[in-house]
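Lecture notes, part 5. Sequence design as translation. It can be helpful to think of inverse folding as translation between two languages: the language of shapes and the language of residues. The source text, in structure tokens, appears below.
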């Protein structure tokens, strides 16, 4: 299993690092620019709407990539595509810096889902060649800012589950090298639901 994880991560980083976008935003400027974002994501990024992602504490480089993907049409989303039309790259970096500087509110995982999800998250499933989620998203769910892998800790269950299912169905395809599509297509609904619940309580 360790060899599988190492091989996967090596392949990912060899093709990813040269194109890595590291956000260099101004958080103070981003706070002012994020006023419109607050209607869906809240002023501090801790959205109260379960289908709208929490942005507080999210890795800035990941947020910048997502904003660019929405603008370019690489990630589907009618509302977000319209919201980013007028944003410059500097605007995106500033807004991302603001939300990255905020602290996410952590939720609690469903106790019934913890055992199944914890095994998948920490160790993966070698029988179906699924690497541990923690290899990219870290054991604490904080992600990997330098590599551009998102934080999952505290995220709404409904939002995370929707993204997992969208990756599996191919609705969302802006993941690195199809990695998330490959993982999710091998997992059942029950496993995806358990993982979505589990990461909401990670910290």
């Amino acid at each position: 299993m360790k060899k599988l994880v190492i091989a996967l991560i090596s392949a990912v980083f060899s093709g990813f690092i040269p194109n890595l976008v590291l956000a260099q935003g101004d958080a103070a400027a981003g706070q002012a620019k994020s006023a419109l974002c607050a209607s869906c994501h809240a002023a501090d990024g801790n959205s109260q709407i379960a289908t709208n992602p929490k942005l507080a504490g999210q890795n800035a480089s990941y947020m910048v990539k997502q904003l660019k993907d929405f603008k370019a049409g690489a990630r589907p989303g009618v509302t977000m595509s319209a919201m980013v039309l007028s944003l410059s790259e500097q605007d995106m970096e500033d807004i991302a810096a603001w939300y990255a500087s905020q602290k996410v509110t952590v939720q609690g995982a469903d106790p019934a889902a913890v055992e199944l999800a914890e095994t998948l998250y920490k160790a993966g499933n070698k029988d179906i060649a699924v690497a541990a989620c923690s290899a990219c998203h870290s054991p604490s769910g904080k992600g990997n800012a330098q590599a551009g892998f998102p934080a999952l800790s505290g995220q709404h269950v409904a939002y995370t589950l929707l993204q997992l299912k969208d990756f599996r169905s191919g609705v969302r395809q802006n993941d690195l090298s199809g990695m998330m599509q490959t993982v999710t297509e091998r997992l059942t609904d029950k496993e995806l639901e358990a993982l979505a619940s589990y990461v909401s309580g990670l910290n």
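The translated text above is only one of many valid answers, since several sequences can fold into similar shapes. The radius of gyration is 16 Å.
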